[in-house]
Amino acid sequence: MRELSPMDVRSIACHVGSAGEKLRTLSFDTIATALTNAAQLLMANEGLGQELRAALAVSTGLSAPMIDWGLLTTLRTAKREDFLALLPVCASSVEPRTYHAARLAAVVLSGNVFTASFRALSAPLMARVPVVAKASSRDDVFPSFFAKALLAVHEDVGRAVRVITFRGGDTRLEDALLSQCDVVAAYGSDSTLHEIRSRLASTTTFVPHGHGLGVAYVPRTEAPLEDVCRRLARDVAAYDQRGCLSPHAIFVEDGGSFSSRELAEHLSVNALAVEQESLPRGELPLSCGAQQLQWRGIAAARGELFEGAAWSVALERGGSFRLSPGYRNVSVLEIPNVESFYQRIAPLGVHLKCLGVEGDPETRNRIAESLPAPLAPRVCATGRMQEPGLTSPVDGMDPMQGFMRCVSLR
Predict the structure, then answer these.
(1) What 3-state class would DSSP assign to 83?
(2) Is the dihedral of CA 244, 384, 292, 63 positive or negative?
(3) pLDDT above 90 coverage of the chain, percent
(4) Which residue has the higher pLDDT, 112 or 278?
(5) 238: helix, strand or coil
(6) Half-sphere exposure of residue 327, counting CA atoms within 13 Å on the CB side?
(7) Collapsing DSSP states into helix, strand and coil, what is residue 45?
(8) Which of 172-186, 310-324, 328-342 bottoms out in mean pLDDT, i.e. has the lowest?
(9) Which residue has the higher pLDDT, 397 or 273?
(10) Is the pLDDT of residue 112 over 90?
(11) pTM for this one?
């Protein structure tokens, strides 16, 4: 396949933008149904879904069971009513004059979690906004198959999305795309977002989604240690701990029915071992091997290290928070109370994307309401950190941010 030129990119953007005329005539229900049917097509372990799994096995480095888990937990939430719930009140009202959609969106994707592109592409389409997705050169498989599935289930919706792939940092091609769009949603590092923002016209809406991480919090609890560790192990193992929602540290409040050391040991010796049986870790890239070795060495020097065949848990008690290299390496830190927990995570700022809280909904609500500014993570139950719903806020923003605008008539 020949490489794209700036002229090719502008032509693609023009073609997709033209498809928006038809897209805007479709009812929200029609689009929601098309997105639902496309998800079902990819979730099935046959036909296009089977082809997708084979391609992901090569591109992601994840094990086959982990790929299946990622597809199932992401696509099973894709129901017509969930897509319709994305719409703000003005879009679903009986006064369509109050709703304005963007003309054409560009979505710049990252490649760390393969299913992340599902909602990133669904949101603009649900807003009746045609979209050109610039996929990561490391892995463009899932968004490409999603576009194929949409074309198969509804031609008019499928024509309104196109996935293109080229090397990141190619400003000629990026500018050719960005200059054609009136809204740009970008996923990537802070430096990548800064670079993109600096090249956009002042009239272009920019929706940034920077890289981040997750943490878990275990307050004083009487819950069985086995249950708590089972939930935490799933959060650590999901996508091999490579996503923005993956926990890098587990903060354990002192004074509960088990100690931080008991949790760390049980998490490694039992819970993560079980996860390895059901959701095996993919092969560790050579580039991450040295990082893992260094991280584990510091952990052993600062506290205790519990190691398994494809995971490790570092008990550092009151040590400072450290980023892990991912790939199922996580710290356990002991704190005296919730105020200390807030102090420890406050410096993470907007980079804290997800907070898993052990306990009942009342506990989660209390923690969420007391978070210090500017923290605005997704707060969820432990065991569900890597399973955000379609309507969950993204970086503290509505998922439809930038794609649709409500015009006041008063």
Answers:
(1) helix
(2) negative
(3) 84
(4) 278
(5) helix
(6) 22
(7) coil
(8) 310-324
(9) 273
(10) no
(11) 0.93
Q: How many CB atoms lie within 10 A of CB 138?
A: 13
- Residue count of the chain, please give it: 410
Give ranges for CATH 3.40.605.10 in the chain. Answer: 6-211
Pairing of β 312-317 and β 304-307: antiparallel
Residue 374, preceding peptide bond in cis (omega within 30° of 0) = yes
Domain with CATH 3.40.309.10 in the chain: 213-381
What is the CATH T-level fold of the domain 6-211, as seen in this structure? Aldehyde Dehydrogenase; Chain A, domain 1 (3.40.605)
Q: The tokens of 292 are what?
A: 């893992």
| Residues 103, 299: Cα–Cα separation, whole Å | 51
Task: Indicate if the alpha-carbon torsion angle 121, 126, 129, 130 is positive or negative.
Answer: positive
Q: Could you tell me whether strands 404-406 and 99-101 are parallel, antiparallel, or unpaired per DSSP bridges?
A: antiparallel
- For residues 62 and 326, the answer to whether their CB atoms sit within 8 Å is no
Are the beta carbons of 184 and 197 closer than 8 angstroms? no
Question: What residues contact 60, with CB distance under 8 A and at least 6 apart?
Answer: 67, 114, 139, 141, 282
Neighbours of 47 (CB within 10 A): 12
Measured distance CA(355)–CA(377) in Å, rounded: 6
Amino acid residing at 238: A
Q: Which H/E stretch holds residue 208?
A: strand 205-210
pLDDT in tens, 11-36: 999 999 999 999 999 999 999 999 99
Domain 213-381: assigned CATH number? 3.40.309.10
Are 220 and 253 within 8 A, CB to CB? yes
Predicted confidence (pLDDT) at residue 92 exceeds the cutoff of 60: no
| pLDDT tens column, 193-249 | 999 999 999 999 999 999 899 999 999 999 999 999 999 999 999 999 999 999 999
The pair phi, psi for residue 163, each rounded to 5°, is: -110, 125
| Cα–Cα distance measured from residue 198 to residue 130, given in angstroms and rounded to the nearest whole number | 24
Is the separation of the CB atoms in 258 and 304 below 8 Å? no
Q: Convert the pLDDT of each residue in 45-70 to its tens digit.
A: 999 999 999 999 999 999 999 999 99
Q: Which two tokens stand for residue 274?
A: 């079980």
Q: Which amino acid is present at 67?
A: I
Question: What is the mean pLDDT of the segment spanning 162-186?
Answer: 94
Q: Would you say residue 384 has pLDDT above 90? A: yes
Residues 109, 110, 113: CA angle, nearest 5 degrees: 115
